Amino acid sequence: MFDMLHIYLIVGLALYMLGIYALASARNMIKLVLGIEILVAAANLNFLALAGFTTSPSVLGPIDPMAQTFVILSICVGGAIAAVAMSLIVNAYYHYGTLDVRELRRLRE
């Protein structure tokens, strides 16, 4: 019924929806960072799936090493961004005593 490409794309779409839901409904800054990381993981999954199935139609075919390189670099940059974001979150918590985005926005005024 479904080939492997469709399964990967459906899982990627589910991750996109989960990440968008996390961004839309979260008031906590840590949940916002996790939502962004879920979106990046979905993009990496879709990128690898499409790269693997456009170079060879079979599942066992080779995947383009350029796509793998881009995904590895994306994971490294995403990890560095998450580390910086978490350090900013810790500083905001020590300074203001809350991680609620709406409360921090209210304190700014």
Pick out its properties:
0% strand, 4 helices, Helix Hairpins, 82% helix, mainly alpha
Provide the structure class.
mainly alpha
Oligomer: single chain
- Provide the gyration radius in Å: 18 Å
Helical content band? over 70%
**What is the average per-residue confidence, as pLDDT, rounded to a whole number?**
88
Major β-sheet annotation? none
At CATH level 3, the topology is: Helix Hairpins
Number of helices: 4
Q: What's the shape?
A: elongated
Q: Which percent range describes the beta-strand content?
A: under 5%
Question: Could you give a quick summary of the protein structure above?
Answer:
By secondary structure, the chain is mainly α. It has helices at residues 4-25, 29-55, 65-96, 101-108. It is elongated, with a radius of gyration of 18 Å.
What does this protein structure show overall?
- By secondary structure, the chain is mostly helical.
- It has a single domain (4-108), classed as Helix Hairpins, CATH 1.10.287.3510.
- Helices cover 82% and strands 0% of the residues.
- It has helices spanning 4-25, 29-55, 65-96, 101-108.
- The longest helix has 32 residues, at 65-96.
- It is elongated, with a radius of gyration of 18 Å.
- The N and C termini lie far apart (56 Å).
- The mean pLDDT is 88.
